[in-house]
């Protein structure tokens, strides 16, 4: 089932996600719905807060993007398609580099964000198997972006104060539902009937 994406301004996007247990109700269905929602919105990652749930779960499919697009700088990277539950970043390393990021919860705004080139992360998968893995390149960037979501951080928090002030009017319009997206969204201040 395709779920609406929670828009910028909703308090759930600022909450630190809660850990979930293996017996969380309908966990497999939730993961499947998140993947379906992400693909319907043409995303490469999606975190539970983006569908209104303050939980420590996110998913990444960098494989489909790297396969479908011509990214010379990532030509040797395979990508992943993986869910991350109760994730904890163990280490960020490598040189920081800037890349133009966007977010499904903040439609039509993209900004250069500087992030480390590598990430080591501990998590459990959908079968609650414990894992610790290291990723780099585009995949590391997507993981760090989605990890931020379960920490209550948005990509706009990584840009300079002046640039963010320049974007504030657009961000306020998103909060009020005065923006068009190519996918279902839930706006915190949108009036009924508009």
Termini, distance in Å? 25 Å
**Could you tell me the radius of gyration in angstroms?**
16 Å
Q: What is the count of structural domains?
A: 1
Tell me the number of helical segments per DSSP (H or I, 4 or more residues long): 4
**CATH homologous superfamily assignment:** Peptide deformylase
From the spread of the alpha carbons, the general shape counts as: globular
Q: Helicity range of the residues?
A: 25-40%
Which blocks of ≥5 consecutive residues have pLDDT under 50? none
Main sheet makeup: 5 strands, antiparallel
The largest beta-sheet arranges its strands as: 2-3-4-5-6
Task: Based on the coordinates given, report the CATH architecture.
Answer: Alpha-Beta Complex
- What's the SSE pattern? EHEEHEEEHHE
Q: Assign the CATH topology.
A: Peptide Deformylase
Total number of beta strands: 7
The amount of beta strand, in percent, is 25-35%
Q: pLDDT average, as an integer?
A: 93
Structural class: alpha+beta
* CATH class group: Alpha Beta
